[in-house]
DNA sequence: GTTGAAAAGGGTCCCGT
DNA sequence: ACGGGACCCTTTTCAAC
């Protein structure tokens, strides 16, 4: 089932719940003018088809001691080592996101550490030993903003 | 109030709820061996001090038609234009994250678009007109994984 | 800061349409 | 696929410890 089979109600529900996972479904129901059971069914459907992958609380990692966030571009020695590198990177707690990329790097990862000193240790003692060609680090010293893509698949937006 | 004032119970609660915003607090209470009211109060406190910034449903954007994700490194013409650039970038729907960075770029942003064609339009028609020196695009053609940092602030982990 | 209980409200399921 | 309703569990509040 693709998103083409989803309708305006699915879209409205998604936009209502995406920024607040704790919103009561009955409130969503009232907003949408349908019953709570309908919302319940729709959300269930959206989870079954994988459009909704889960929910999470958003934590301010800076406030709990992880004051350094960085992106690290990774160059692999050879293409065959992709899977191995990803598997090893996934084992490292501090690595929270990992992408296959085109362009300069082979992989791009996002990491959280307590401070710059820990960043260096992380790279030297955990990331480099995996067996990469080279890495390039980009420290994020401030998150300017973070927001959600408006969900919109029923009518294409005009350019 | 800093994270140093948080205790093992706060830590345990955070680890239990961070990957499931819909978990009943009573279930958390049972896991932690305290009352539901205690969990309720703790979560309230964690929100008040900003450790919990909110909650969200995790959407698979690929499944709703946004098949291209990219990071774009931005070079500004001059340092004074930081704030203006950030303000303008925030207005663009497709830009979902923005960081001040050290290293090669001045800013790093994350964008979601429907396809590569839309990525080009986005850069040429919305991002470049803000008045930047140059941009460098890095397309993520697959998210290898995404996970959460284990929350751990009571005892420092040994290296 | 935590508890237990009470009141209010939401989640879930089943059946009828 | 949706609505109504029943049942049960959860959220939220508050007095008391």
Comma- or semicolon-separated keywords:
homodimer; about 160 residues; alpha+beta; Alpha-Beta Plaits; 2 domains; elongated; DNA-binding
How is this structure best described in words?
2 copies of one chain form a homodimer. Chain A has 5 helices and 5 strands. In chain A, a hairpin with a 5-residue loop joins β3 and β4 (107-113). In chain A, α2 (25-32) packs across α3. Chain A is 33% helix and 27% strand. Chain A has a 4-stranded antiparallel beta sheet. The first copy, chain A, has helices at residues 8-17, 25-32, 36-48, 82-90, 116-127, and strands at 52-59, 68-75, 95-101, 107-113, 134-146. The model of chain A has no long low-confidence stretch (mean pLDDT 94). In chain A, 32% of the residues are buried. With 159 residues, chain A is α+β, with helices and mostly antiparallel strands. The two termini of chain A are 27 Å apart. The longest helix of chain A has 13 residues, at 36-48. Chain A folds into 2 domains: 8-48, Winged helix-like DNA-binding domain superfamily/Winged helix DNA-binding domain (Arc Repressor Mutant, subunit A, Orthogonal Bundle); 61-140, Alpha-Beta Plaits (2-Layer Sandwich). The first copy, chain A, is elongated and about 55 Å long. Chains A and B meet through β1, β2, α4, β3 and β4 of A and β1, β2, α4, β3 and β4 of B. β5 of chain A pairs antiparallel with β3 (95-101) of chain B.
